[in-house]
Amino acid sequence: MRFLLRAISTLLAMCCCAASLALSQPVLYIVRHAEKLANWPERELGTFQPLSEAGVATAARLAKHFEAMKFAAIYSSSTTRTLHTTFPLSQKLGVPVDTVRAMMDTAAIESFYAQLSKKFGPDQSVLLVTHSNIIPYLLVKAGLSSECFDNMGVQKSMGSSWLVVEGYDNIYKVEGLGKKRTGCEGITRGRFWSR
After folding, report:
1. Are 31 and 128 in contact (CB under 8 A)?
2. CB under 8 Å to 50, separation ≥6 — which residues?
3. Got the DSSP string for 57-84?
C-alpha cells in the first residue's frame, strides 16, 4: 500500500510539473522574411539575397504592426533577407536580433524550443523571423496537427516533399509551446497588410 501511494504521489508530481511547464511558455510570433530581390544569383550568393523595394516597405509595415509589442527577444536566420526584415522593428523597439540555426535548420527546432522554454515565461513574447519552408516545421514542433494545415496555409512545395507557406504577410501566433493540442487550439494565423 505504501508503494502504491508513493507511486501515485510521484505521478501526480510529474503531471503538475508538466502542466506547469506548459503554462510557463512564452508566446511566439512567427513571420516570414519580406519580399526578396528578384533575379539574384541564388546558388552562389543565396544567403545574401536582399529585400526588394516592396520587401523594404513590407518590413517597415511589419515594424509598424508590432511597434506596441514588448518582445523579450527577436530571433532570425542569418540570411540578409531575414535580418533586413527584422532590422526596422529591432531598431524601433531597441531589442537586438539574435541569429539561431533553428530558423534555417529543422533539425535544430526542438532544442531551440527547449531553450526558449527555460529562458522565457508566459508573460513574455518572442518573435521568430524565418523562411517559407521552415515555418511549417516550427508550427508542427509546436504541436500543430496536419488537420490544421489548410487553416494555416501550409502546403506541399511543388516538386519537393517540403512543406511551405505562401505570402509575406502572415503572422503565426503560438501559445502554450509544447502543449498537447486539440485541433488547432493555441495556434492562430493573422495578417498584417503587406502591399
Report:
1. yes
2. 36, 37, 40, 80, 81, 84
3. HHHHHHHHHTTT--EEEEEE-SSHHHHH
- What is the spatial distance between Cα 58 and Cα 34, in angstroms, rounded to a whole number? 6
d(CA 52, CA 54): 5
The average pLDDT across 106-111 equals: 97
Cβ pair 108, 78 in contact under 8 A = no
Q: How many CA atoms lie within 13 A of 81 on its CB side?
A: 28
Please give the model's pTM, rounded to 2 decimal places: 0.86
If pLDDT is split at 50, 70 and 90, which confidence band does 77 have? very high
Residues 128, 77 contacting (CB under 8 angstroms): no
Q: Which residue in this structure is represented by grid cell 527547449?
A: 114
State how far the Cα of 17 lies from the Cα of 74, in Å rounded to an integer.
28
Residue type, 86: T
DSSP assigned state of 36: B
Torsion of CA 165, 92, 75, 124, to 10 degrees: -100
Between the alpha carbon of residue 2 and those of residues 5, 7, 9, 12, 16, the distances in Å are 5, 9, 11, 15, 21
First to last CA, the chain: 68
Sign of CA dihedral 167, 57, 72, 105: positive
